[in-house]
Amino acid sequence: MNQVMERQSIHSNRRRMVNGRLRNRGNLERPKEVQTHVKKQEVLHFAGFWMRFWAYLLDMIILFSLNGLLIYPLIRLTNWNDLQLGGFFRLETALATLIFFLYFAIMTKYYRQTIGKMILGLRVVSTVNNQLSWTQIVFREGVGRFLHQAFFFLYAIYVIVAFTNNKQGLHDKIADTYVIFERNHAE
């Protein structure tokens, strides 16, 4: 039995000449240089208006719940119901706005998605590099969302997502970001 095994291993290690080149018999492997340079073409599938809309609604439910659990009981327990901040802003409105912006900024920076986007399999990616910078986060979640929230008629600009090639909203264009389907994105 050992003789048969030795003959097979000797036979498989033999080299032969084919077309003037020395070739190995048996299975030929690709050179490692070729394997490392072959890169899979990445295709991004951009998330459209309706998927982003449903993710945003889920995030609003989560934020409404957070405000109901954290801010409103705190305001009522401390009797700060009518505390005004710099004119016509109430304390609870300022705290709810702060939680709104912090939620979107922190979740997008560290996870590249909010809980609503996680549920629907969406992810925010940068158009210029692999990581989202704080500058992009501030412009996307701060300036872009402020424009949409501060002026009610600018909510209609969210519809721009449905008509652009890369499905970018105004806040995406400002921050150089896309929202894509996560399952097709390899990191």
Account of the 3D structure:
The chain is mainly alpha-helical. It has eight helices and six strands, in the order H-E-E-H-H-E-E-H-H-E-H-H-H-E. A two-stranded antiparallel ribbon has the order 1-2. Strands 3-4 form a two-stranded antiparallel sheet. A two-stranded antiparallel ribbon has the order 5-6. A hairpin with a 3-residue loop joins strand 3 and strand 4. The protein is elongated and about 90 Å long.
Q: How would you summarize the topology of this molecule?
A:
Elements: H1 2-12, E1 15-18, E2 21-24, H2 32-37, H3 49-78, E3 84-85, E4 89-90, H4 91-111, H5 115-120, E5 122-126, H6 134-150, H7 160-163, H8 170-175, E6 177-181
Antiparallel strand pairs: 1-2, 3-4, 5-6
For the report, how would you describe the main beta sheet? 2 strands, antiparallel
Structural class: mainly alpha
Number of helices: 8
The overall pLDDT average reads: 77
Question: Helix content range of the residues, please?
Answer: 40-55%
C-alpha termini separation:
50 Å
Query: How many beta strands in the DSSP annotation?
Result: 6
Q: What is the overall silhouette?
A: elongated
**C-alpha-based Rg, rounded:** 28 Å
> DSSP strand (E) fraction?
5-15%
Low-confidence runs of at least 5 consecutive residues: 30-39
- Encode the helix/strand succession as letters: HEEHHEEHHEHHHE
